[in-house]
Amino acid sequence: MTTITVTLNKTTASFSGVNAFAGTNVVAKDNAGTVLPGVILTGKETPPWTAVFTGATGPNLVQVTATDLDSKGNTIGTPVTATETGTGGMQQTYPQTSGITLTVV
Amino acid sequence: MNRLFSLLLLLPTITFATVVTISWTNPTTYTDGSALPGTDIGSTTVQYGPCSTTTPLSVTTVAGTFTAQGGTTHAQSPDLPAGTYCFQAITNSLSQGSSVASVAVKDAIAKNAGAPALATPTNQLVTSGTAVYLATLIDDGWAFTQVGTVPVGTPCDATQGVNQYNEVPQKGVTVTWQTAVQPRSIVALCH
User: Fold this and answer.
1) Exposure winner among A70, A89, B34, B114, fewest CB in 10 A?
2) Is residue A8 part of a domain?
3) How many CB pairs under 8 A join A and B?
4) Which of residues 37-76 of A touch B (CB under 8 A)?
5) What is the pLDDT of residues A9-67, one digit of tens each?
6) Rounded to whole angstroms, how far apart are CA atoms B166 and B190?
7) Are B22 and B122 a contacting pair, CB within 8 Å?
8) What b-and-e string marks burial along B26-51, b requiring 16 or more CB atoms within 10 Å of the CB?
9) Domain harbouring A57, CATH code
10) Is the residue at A35 inside a domain?
11) Chain B residues whose C-beta sits inside 8 Å of any chain A C-beta
12) How many domains does chain A fold into?
């Protein structure tokens, strides 16, 4: 099991939409490659703009996409994606054949 | 009672025994173009059965029927076993006295109620959950974020959806929103 903590960095930007900004939809793909249930952040979280996901281990890099939405679910701007850096997911191992010992009697 | 007429629709394969909700729009005219008051609609009978293998689709054999009384525009099927079904709706208009029975066949046809327009086939949401989601397309798949709930039994559109989720038309549906984001398009697990 892994804990994926996502904190959004926010700046103030203008947009010309009819509906007001309502939240940021955050979806994450865990190290096993599974898309986890998303969450909508509004800034009222503690700490603000932070989501915590529980994922599974695996060989993949965690990927998170944040999409700013208006009150009707319309996308504002361009979704932002971040991918895990560093060592990444747990590397899988397998019994690799490295040679043969042959005995004939 | 003066019976008629139908439109056909194909429902996707039903995996489990389930109740299917069919909705339609009642006709407003007879087939001769004269007005058909809503009060003259006695009932609507929905027939179901196997689909034809050729187009236009039809119910090859009527396996069963279910009926909505009066001007009701939806009805639920009995619990159907797994399979693929076609449905056709028949509007039964009320005749005035015995006049319909006494007229010629041609006239009777002319006075048949117009065809009801069947709405998109709908399936019933079952107890696997009442959550509705915002579907988001990410690089190689779909992600789902719960945004609210709907009552058990809310119809969903079997023809629209992604993965195992189907769209839930919001018209006439009470959505209990859990987020400030209230998308126009929401999906749910439907059976």
Assistant:
1) B34
2) yes
3) 68
4) 37-40, 42, 63, 65, 67, 69-73
5) 999 988 887 889 999 999 999 988 899 999 999 999 999 999 999 999 888 889 999 99
6) 6
7) yes
8) bbeebbeeeebeeebbbbbbbbbbeb
9) 2.60.40
10) yes
11) 134, 136, 138-139, 141-147, 179-185
12) 1
Mutate to test the interface with B, among A18, A41, A67 (most CBs of B within 10 A): A67
Q: CB distance A69–B184 less than 8 Å?
A: no
User: In angstroms, rounded to a whole number, what is the distance separating the alpha carbons of residues B21 and B155?
Assistant: 7
Q: Is the ipTM of this complex over 0.85?
A: no
Tell me, yes or no, whether A102 lies in a domain. no
pLDDT of residue B4: 39
Check CB contact under 8 Å for B180 and A23: yes
The per-residue pLDDT for B58 is: 64
A38 belongs to a structural domain: yes
> Of B120, B164, B173, which Cα lies nearest the Cα of B141?
B164
B187: closest CA of chain A, how far (Å): 13
Per-residue model confidence (pLDDT) at position B181: 93
Interval B58-74: pLDDT, tens: 677 788 888 888 778 77
The whole-angstrom separation of Cα B119 and Cα A47 is 47
Q: Please give the residue range of the domain that contains residue A25.
A: 2-83
CA-based nearest distance B184→chain A, Å: 6
Given this model, what pLDDT does residue A1 score?
Answer: 86
pTM over cut 0.95: no
What was the pLDDT predicted at B116? 57
Contact between B73 and B66 under an 8 Å Cβ cutoff? The reply is no
Q: What is the pLDDT of residues B81-138, one digit of tens each?
A: 766 667 777 777 775 322 222 221 222 222 344 555 554 444 455 445 688 999 888 8
